[in-house]
Amino acid sequence: MSLLVAVADPDPVTRSEMTRALAQAEFTVLEAGDGVHALRQVFTSHPGVIVMELNLPRLGGLELVRALRAASDIGIIVVSDGHAPTAARVLDAGADDYIARPVGLAELVARVRATARRIEHDDAADGEQPADQVVRTGALTIDREAQVVTRHGVQVGMTRTEHLLLGSLAQRIGQVCTHRFLLSNVWGGEYIDDTHYLRGYVASLRAKLEDDPAHPRLLLTEWGTGYRLAAIAPAAQRADERVNARLADAAS
Questions:
Q1: Cystine design at 162: which of 30, 37, 64, 158 (Cβ 3.0–4.6 Å)?
Q2: Which residues share a beta bridge with 97?
Q3: How far apart are alpha carbons 36 and 17 in whole angstroms?
Q4: CB atoms within 10 A of CB 25
Q5: Where in the chain is the domain with CATH 3.40.50.2300?
Q6: 3-state SS string over 31-100?
Q7: Is the per-residue pLDDT at 101 higher than 70?
Q8: What is the pLDDT of residue 65?
Q9: Fold designation for 134-241
């Protein structure tokens, strides 16, 4: 049975082109011209992936992403102009992927396939009990199966892709994870040369998880190779916090 994909774009020509390309790739496609129609389609027809223009009438793209992510695990791919702040807002809202215009139809099909594989991987992992399911380092607790991350006991809001990336690093905590390993594990084999994906998502994770993102202690860069999630014992974390508190007191 082919994967059901929703395409939401107010421009009928663009929407038709994307629909045709996805249909030729053997996906079943639903079309919507505005955000309200797209939201209704997701809840009535339950597509596995939605490809959506950011600037939708009636219900804007960011609002639609937040509504979908709050209520479902659908794969969300947003298409818009290639501005970094826009991409960051979209991904933080819960989208799985972002494509900058102009959109290559072959790339679109590849992105949909990669997103579908990530969803299937998540579904296949449900109910499994892997070794080191819960990983602790410093102030972080990472539950890889439940996709829950806490920092100092407080849950951190993260996107599906951020959870997959952090989970891949936690799988090999203390070891170097190569660019190719992370890209293949999170995005799929066709993305093994797209290291800019990693840079953007690692920066986002550091902003959420590090005390000082400019001087990371947890998510470490191994130049020319990849990234490593440092294994920091809780006692060492507490000692660092006491030192930092004393330094702050001395500076005040």
A1: 158
A2: 77
A3: 21
A4: 18
A5: 4-125
A6: EECCHHHHHHHHHHHCCCEEEEECCCCCCCHHHHHHHHHHHCCCEEEEEECCCHHHHHHHHHHCCCEEEE
A7: yes
A8: 92
A9: Arc Repressor Mutant, subunit A (1.10.10)
In the predicted model, is pLDDT for residue 171 greater than 60? Answer: yes
Q: What are phi and psi of 38, to 5 degrees?
A: -65, -45
Q: Which residues pair with 136 in a beta bridge?
A: 141
| Nearest alpha carbon to residue 185 among 109, 118, 96, 85 | 118
pTM: 0.63
Amino acid 155: pLDDT:
94
For residue 190, the 8-state DSSP code is G
Class of domain 4-125: alpha beta
Strands 4-8 and 28-32: parallel
Intervals of CATH 1.10.10.10 along the chain: 134-241
Which residues does 53 contact at the CB level (< 8 Å), separation at least 6?
8, 9, 10, 11, 14, 61, 78, 79, 80
d(C-alpha 85, C-alpha 246), whole Å: 36
Residue 129, pLDDT score: 44
